[in-house]
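Collaborator request log, item 7. Partner lab (contact: R.S.) asked for a structural prediction of Glycosyltransferase, group 1 family protein to inform their binding assays.
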Amino acid sequence: MAGLGRIAFFSGDITRSGGTENVSIMLANALAAEGWVNDGNAVSFVSLFEEHDRPFFDIDPRIARYTVYPTVTHGIQHYFDTVKRLRRLVKQHHIDVLVDIDGILDMYSLPIKRSAGVKVISWEHFNYHQNPGVPYRKLTRRWAARKADAIVTLTEADRKLYLDNAHPKCPVIAIPNPMQTVTPQPVYAADSRIIISSGRLTYQKGFDMLVDVAARVLPGHPDWQWFILGEGEDRPMLEEKIVAAGIGNQLILKGRVENMPDYYRKAAMFVLTSRFEGLPMVLLEAKAYKLPIVSFDCETGPADIVTDGVNGDLVETGDISGMAERINLLIDDDEHRGRYAAHADEGMDCFDRDLIIGQWDRLLKGDE
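Returned to partner:
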């Protein structure tokens, strides 16, 4: 594989611990390792700012990192300044392709396409119907459909949503997130009494609903614990709900943890309560560690990863009692959990890392 040009992944803040940052770093590292860093070619990250001293996920040292602002800077009032700064940075580092790892960033990259001579790839990590936190995301999606050089979705279902609703003038390509290779080979912890969930503590991830589910599960199983791995703005609200439910000794907010693999290896199951997703990396990670999964069947994502009744359970989104029932059944049936773990990797061929890196390689070379 040989790289062609200078590729930059454009992020809000690449030092964050979210799934978007995880998969973007995984992809960039793979490109760097397989030939995209040599004379005349480069892989880099451009962030609006970096809030943490170092990234949560390890970045290949050959990959440069740049920031639009030297300090944390929020607000639409900085829009024109941000566009100006981004244009200057792109030209200074001779960047040929900007891969916007959040579609909302198209609002900054698309205006500089012509003046900076850069191609823009819009990478959709949610789905066409969702506009988390930013109502004008709808506008940037329509803008990308007209002006981007390509749009990448995580599922074929979302690709079809773009084609049917946005009528894009550019190619729309479905490239899923890759499933990581775990070494040493994981062994399912059949005797574990630990449930884990992971993600940013935000409305999207539905941890408020998770507390409601846990309140129906944990009191009846005093020897079990449930760990939530991640940090975010919903922490104060979640802390209050946990205290009110009286389950603070069993449902524990672990915050931003450095040793995620240790939690996966020691867990009995993984639970996802998201209101919406694109293609959740945390479910791919859970499957890589052979974990049974109980997940809300939210639009796009979980149904692509979990085969209901084979390696996990899919529950109607928002069905608190239904999810609690499925978790209780798994807790009470060790053999059931073991069967799910044994079939964890079924249907995972489409998430093969090398296959997905190859798709990105062809797209970035203009072969897709």
